[in-house]
């Protein structure tokens, strides 16, 4: 994959994307005949919903974001395999979370908005609501973060005790511009308990890989004027740092429906935070 996908390579890539999406939808027929590990059959409505809602991944229909298509196809297929067990069944106290056992997360050391060194162990014993993005994309990242934090606030209103055990965390994918001093006023707009994390490019690359976040800087008109293409994900991690569930985020390709509606976020937190 070239570092930057120009308009000349868009059509072949879009053709490949369309073919891959057709293949993904055909998964429905095969999955229908499977039986989950817990003995429950997967019904048609469940698989349809699962395949269709996997479209939350951040595909963009322009050259700047074409480089993400191949990565997101692979991630979609991976998510399908992760979500098969338990993703469509009603929640219960004994039900395994949809991401149980997934290789997501791990140790990290970063810097917060106040310049303090923060590691994954800082949040031991607390749930973590983790999202990523950067400040210099006003049409996507702040909007997604706003919906996510509004969902957390609704959960706080309904169950303040459980919500107090959830630590919201925003990790930048643009460490060169998102310094602690720059990120502090940004995150303060969304939630009083939100922690913003940054670090060296190497540290950010390490934590992004552990959380399956793909990102790549795109050339701009000036060295300090550029965009960063990245996967659009939000995770709920457990008190021991274990992955629990993907939290809804909006699909930028649609306008009629907000897939990251705060009510959906609050419902998912209610489902899994004990």
Blueprint (SSEs and pairs):
Layout: H1 10-31, H2 44-53, H3 69-83, E1 109-112, E2 117-119, E3 127-133, H4 141-158, H5 160-163, E4 166-172, H6 180-187, E5 195-198, H7 201-210, E6 215-222, E7 225-230, E8 234-237, E9 243-246, H8 262-272
Parallel strand pairs: 3-4, 4-5
Antiparallel strand pairs: 1-2, 1-5, 3-8, 6-7, 8-9
How is the biggest beta sheet arranged? 7 strands, mixed
Question: What is the number of domains?
Answer: 2
CATH superfamily of the largest domain: Glutaredoxin
Kindly state the number of beta strands: 9
Into which percentage range does the β-strand content fall? 15-25%
Termini separation: 43 Å
| Count of discrete alpha- or pi-helical segments spanning 4 or more residues | 8
Instruction: Give the averaged pLDDT, no decimals.
Output: 75
Strands of the widest sheet, in order across it, are 2-1-5-4-3-8-9
Q: Which overall shape is indicated by the principal axes computed on the Cα atoms?
A: globular
Q: List the uncertain runs.
A: 1-14, 20-78, 80-90
Helix and strand sequence: HHHEEEHHEHEHEEEEH
Radius of gyration in whole Å, from Cα?
A: 19 Å
Portion in helices: 25-40%
CATH architecture of the largest domain: 3-Layer(aba) Sandwich
CATH C-level label of the largest domain? Alpha Beta
Category by helix and strand content: alpha+beta
Question: What name does the CATH topology of the largest domain carry?
Answer: Glutaredoxin
């Amino acid at each position: 994959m070239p570092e930057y996908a120009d308009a000349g390579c868009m059509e072949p890539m879009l053709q490949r994307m369309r073919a891959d999406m057709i293949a993904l939808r055909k998964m429905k027929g095969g999955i229908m005949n499977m039986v989950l590990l817990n003995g429950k059959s997967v019904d048609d409505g469940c698989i349809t919903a699962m395949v269709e809602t996997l479209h939350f991944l951040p595909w963009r229909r322009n050259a700047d974001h074409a480089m993400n298509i191949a990565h997101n196809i692979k991630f979609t297929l991976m998510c399908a395999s992760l979500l098969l067990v338990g993703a469509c069944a009603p929640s219960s106290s004994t039900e395994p979370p949809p991401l149980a056992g997934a290789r997501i997360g791990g140790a990290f050391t970063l810097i917060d908005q106040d310049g303090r060194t923060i590691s994954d162990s800082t949040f031991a014993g607390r749930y973590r609501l983790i999202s990523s993005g950067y400040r210099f994309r006003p049409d996507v990242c702040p909007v997604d973060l706003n919906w996510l934090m509004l969902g957390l606030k609704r959960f706080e209103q309904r169950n303040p005790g459980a919500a107090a055990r959830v630590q919201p965390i925003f990790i930048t994918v643009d460490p060169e511009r998102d310094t602690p001093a720059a990120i502090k006023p940004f995150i303060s707009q969304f939630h009083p308990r939100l922690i913003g994390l940054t670090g060296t490019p190497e540290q950010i690359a390490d934590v992004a890989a552990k959380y399956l976040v793909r990102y790549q800087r795109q050339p701009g008109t000036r060295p300090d004027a550029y965009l960063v293409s990245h996967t659009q994900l939000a995770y709920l991690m457990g008190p021991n740092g274990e992955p629990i569930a993907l939290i809804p985020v909006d699909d930028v390709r649609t306008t009629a429906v907000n897939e990251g509606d705060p009510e959906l976020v609050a419902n998912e937190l209610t489902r899994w935070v004990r």
